[in-house]
Amino acid sequence: MIEANKLTRRYGDFTAVDRLSFTVEPGTVLGFLGPNGAGKSTTMKMLTGFLPPSAGTASVHGHDIIGDSLAARRLIGYLPEGAPLYGELAVQRFLDFVAGTRGFRGAEAACRVEQAIERLQLEEVRNQTIETLSKGFKRRVGLAQAILSDPPVLILDEPTDGLDPNQKQQVRRLIREMSEGKIIIISTHILEEVDALCTRAMIIARGRLLADDTPASLLARSRYARAVSLACDDLPSAASALSELDEAGEVEIRRGLVTAFPSGQGDLFQAVSKLADERGWRVSRLQLEAGRLDDVFRRITRVDSTEKAA
Amino acid sequence: MNLRSGNLNVVLKRELASYFATPVAYVFIVIFLVMAGAFTFYLGGFYEREIADLQPFFQFHPWLYLFLVPAIGMRLWAEERKSGTIELLLTLPVTAGEAVIGKFLAAWAFVGLALLLTFPIWITVNVLGQPDNGVILSGYIGSWLMAGGFLAISACLSAVTRNQVVAFIIAVVVCFGFLLSGLPMVLDLFRGWLPQAAVDAIANLSFLSHFNSISRGVVDLRDLVYFGLVIGFWLLANRIVIEIKKAQ
């Protein structure tokens, strides 16, 4: 379990992380979500013992990140922001080094390195110098380094940054495969990633925790959750007819779709499809909207900034 | 400080692997050997003296190290900070002390290797005459210890900045100070108005006076302790600088 208690980091007058408190149980894939400069990386640097907090504490499976830093670090696999690596070394040599620092020796070390190479599909580049590799391979070497000791806690700062769509899928699959019984914390500003990967998401902006929920509940906060969109030949008349439904609240026309937002009464989807049938609209598309994370994200982070201005 | 030799070894081997993975190691060794040879034969008058010893060889080492050792030391931490690998290194289960000492030992072993590769000059002097090989051995030990002192200074100062050039210049200046404080012309400046004990203390801080006595074959425990203390002091300072500045 990871426990953070009022974790705070200041740089001069600037507060990068502001009294962040949370606990994470094993089996959780937690996504730190937030705009650039929100304090996601700073929080990770504190959890991994790299950056001492200005105030507050955190512990990893009962080991304080400052007082018992070494024991805490043994439990953590960490991919720092930008995946820094010793560029002059060959991939295998670098992983040998990491295995050594993790306390593996001889055959056991070799075995761990092999496993990591296999899991991240680094076989073809194992003897290549890291600085000559593509960005995608470098990121995978960084991940291989983090998972090498099969640690119970993985902290990955933007693990899929710079990867192409196939590699992103691969890395997400890997994270999902490993997530059982582990604590995995990833930071990202890619919203779909939270939906695809995380069992829990924390939205952070200006160092403060703004929302902490499952992706599904976050999605439900979207105004698009359970809205109904429809495409037909006469959008304006469809829009005015829809706005008279009891089940519909607001109605908007965007990009060839008319969208009715639920008013909260009755089943909007059924009402809309019945209406379309009665009026004989030529409907080319009718869909029930899921919530949109970007909408939730914008609203949550914007509410925060208006509060701040007020 | 809690040090585990396993981790020291792992850090040391990684560091050495980096030297030999880049031209750094080869360039350093070649330049060191060429310059050591040139100083010995041209400036030191190795043949003209017609004395079978390595004094002309050793007497230029302080000046050779003044520029070459900071060149090795400057990258130790500045490069880690610049590339961000310091975050990787210090979040692995390695203590700052282990990282500082492991890196220092790697660089020191490397300088030691370069020094060992000067063995042809030892063979030469043995072919030409009958030198006192005990004195030569003590010269090598003194030279290596002095290199360690320069290196500990350079390593510590390399942790202060992420810019290697800045690290190099500061290290050369500080090393120069440690050298100069033993020269007669510097000591003469103090001799007029400082008590003899204070002048001796300044002279005692100098690498030169300690190195000169060892290189003449006088292995005094005090000289060994001196270099040990210098190295220990700067490595401790190095660790403190790392702890304070690692995340900046």
Task: Give a quick rundown of the structure.
The complex is a heterodimer of chains A (310) and B (248). Chain A is an alpha/beta fold and 310 residues long. Chain A has 11 helices and 14 strands.
Task: Give structural notes.
The complex is a heterodimer of chains A (310) and B (248). By secondary structure, chain A is of the alpha/beta class. In chain A, 38% of the residues lie in helices and 28% in strands. Chain A is built from eleven helices and 14 strands. Chain A has helices at 40-47, 69-74, 91-101, 106-119, 135-147, 165-178, 191-197, 215-220, 235-243, 268-279, 293-309, and strands spanning 2-11, 14-24, 28-33, 55-60, 63-64, 76-79, 153-157, 183-188, 200-205, 208-213, 228-232, 248-254, 257-262, 283-288. In chain A, the strands form three sheets. In chain A, strands 6-7-8-3-9-10 form a six-stranded mixed β-sheet, sandwiched between helices. In chain A, strand 12 and strand 13 form a beta hairpin. The longest helix of chain A is centred in the last third of the chain and has 17 residues, at 293-309. The two termini of chain A are 38 Å apart. The mean pLDDT of chain A is 89. By secondary structure, chain B is mainly alpha-helical. In chain B, 79% of the residues lie in helices and 0% in strands. In chain B, helix 13 crosses helix 14 (221-245). The radius of gyration of chain B is 19 Å and the shape is globular. The mean pLDDT of chain B is 89. The interface between A and B is medium-sized, with 30 and 24 residues.
